[in-house]
Amino acid sequence: MITHEFRYASHPEDALKYGTDELRKHFLIENLFKDDMISLTYSMYDRFIVGGAKPVKKNLKLETIPYLKSANFLDRREMGVINVGGKGIIIVDGVKYELDKKEALYIGKNAKDVEFLSTAGTPPLFYINSAPAHKEFPTKKVGKDNAEVIQLGDEKYANRRILNKLIVNSIVNTCQLQMGLTELVEGNVWNTMPAHTHERRMEAYFYFDVEDEQTVCHFMGQPQNTRHIFMKNNQAVLSPEWSIHSGAGTCNYSFVWGMAGENLDYGDMDICPPNQLK
Predict the structure, then answer these.
(1) In order of start, what are the domains of the chain with their CATH numbers?
(2) Is pTM, for the whole model, over 0.85?
(3) Is 245 annotated as a binding residue?
């Protein structure tokens, strides 16, 4: 079964007027993983789709949704999937791919049949990002051994972290989708510092491995007009092209970043020094 919702894009001047409930309504995606369901949110930010699939007792088939007006979900799209739960299986046009936790699968345009399956034990949690695609590239699995791994940050500033580039153009051919996974080292809480925007791309963050009864405060907005959203485990947040995307948690955690837009240059950032944020 598939559930879906639609989100309009917001002008930054409008977003300044949003209170807590409105910020959460327009940007936060709360219930990504429901037993034996695929949950999708279609955003007008670069027509990016954020979703989750949790097969428990049933195989889940990816079917088209009304916003796409296409016979198959991937007729004009590409997709990235990162497993953040137990071991699972994705079958793409008859080819089986096994994904352990923190492994990724890129699925190219024109794939017709995509199914999400569970194996024995803890159910998988397949986190999904999808963007429009103009060209077909082959489906490819990317394990953590294949990732580009970068050490970032400093214990002094509580932001030491390990960045794993998974679905990026140096590893996988894509049209515009880019995805990766960042792990905060124990005792560190800040992600994405210095904060930045990139007006040529939007982004979505998905926070996971957040301990029970703990939280992550996600910061968004223009660098001199910031807002915040408190988030729980396994929740995602949309980040417009005009917005920073950074966060601090009450414990260490991991998060998936996914982006789409004008280019594939990971370093395309307009940085704002921490002491200039407002």
Answers:
(1) 2-276 (2.60.120.10)
(2) yes
(3) yes
